[in-house]
Amino acid sequence: MSPIPVLDRRGLWVAAASFAVWGLMPLYWHLLKAVPSMQIVFHRIVWSTVLVIGWLCWKQGLQWWRQAVAKPRVAWLLALSGTLIAFNWGLYIWAVNAGHVVETSLGYFINPLLNVVLGVLLLRERLTAAQWIAVSIAALGVLWLTFNYGSFPWIALALAASFGLYGLIRKVAAVDSIPGLGIESAYLFLPALAMLLWAETHGQGGFFGGWGLAMDALLVFGGALTALPLIGFAYAVRRIPYSVIGLMQYIAPTMQLLIGVLVFGEAFDNDRAIGFAFIWVGLAVFAIDGFLRSRKRAVPAAA
Questions:
Q1: How far apart are CA 246 and CA 135, in angstroms?
Q2: How many distinct structural domains can be found in the chain?
């Protein structure tokens, strides 16, 4: 077993910012409700690829590509992670614009617990006793939400599994965050571009004037909103324990849940409130434990 690591503060802040951006995403994708969900995904892929690879080539030429793919297993690992994140995006955007924001938040409530399990079982990470208590309380909340949701939450489970496996692959792939995203995007770029061109030439697209300039600008800017939190997530996931990433991910679904209920008027009954309360108690236990351990480390350093 590896020792319990000291948390990287910069990694923690970057992770928190990434999850906050993801938490606000339903508001952005709702603005694009008139655009078919899969075309939004293809635009995300195309414009994020242009942004990321353009920036990398401007800074490093093609050196970044050669260095990244020269490492063992990286090329096929990133092909797999790119496929997983594309599936996750497609399901998420469709669910948001089909009125299932609360269920997508449930998926991202389940996902952190899956990350904790993966971190402990596959990466041999260790949790303190207080962290185990925190995870157990949060797990009770997720189980309560799952079994009292009213129907089988297939959207939530598919989102949790796809993003959990994506994060695990980015954790074990020995590649920096931005080059890794560039390679993932490169695998997806030509298929996404081909599908967009097919839609435009067969009367099913509207990017060139059909949806209006404002909608076109939102689709293009969606590439930046896609790239930046993914870069931050990939940066953080290599610098702090995967189990910690798992618990921090509750930031995004909490914001999504609040948006679904308060902005879009989706149902939030007593059963969902109970599950939500369990999750936040677990998070409070985890946060207090981390604060106390950081103070204990600071005392010897000051002495």
A1: 10
A2: 1
pLDDT digits (tens, 9 = 90+) for 20-56: 998 999 999 989 988 988 899 999 999 999 988 998 8
Helix axes 74-97, 101-121, angle to 10 degrees: 150
3-state secondary structure of 210: coil
Mean pLDDT of the residues in the chain: 84
Q: Is 1 part of any domain?
A: no
Q: Are 52 and 182 in contact (CB under 8 A)?
A: yes
Nearest to 112 by CA among 78, 82, 142: 142
d(CA 259, CA 253) in angstroms, rounded, equals 10
**What is the DSSP annotation of 257-292?**
HHIIIIIS-----HHHHHHHHHHHHHHHHHHHHHHH
100 assigned to some structural domain: yes
Residues belonging to the chain? 303
**2: in domain:** no
The residue range of the domain holding 89 is 9-302
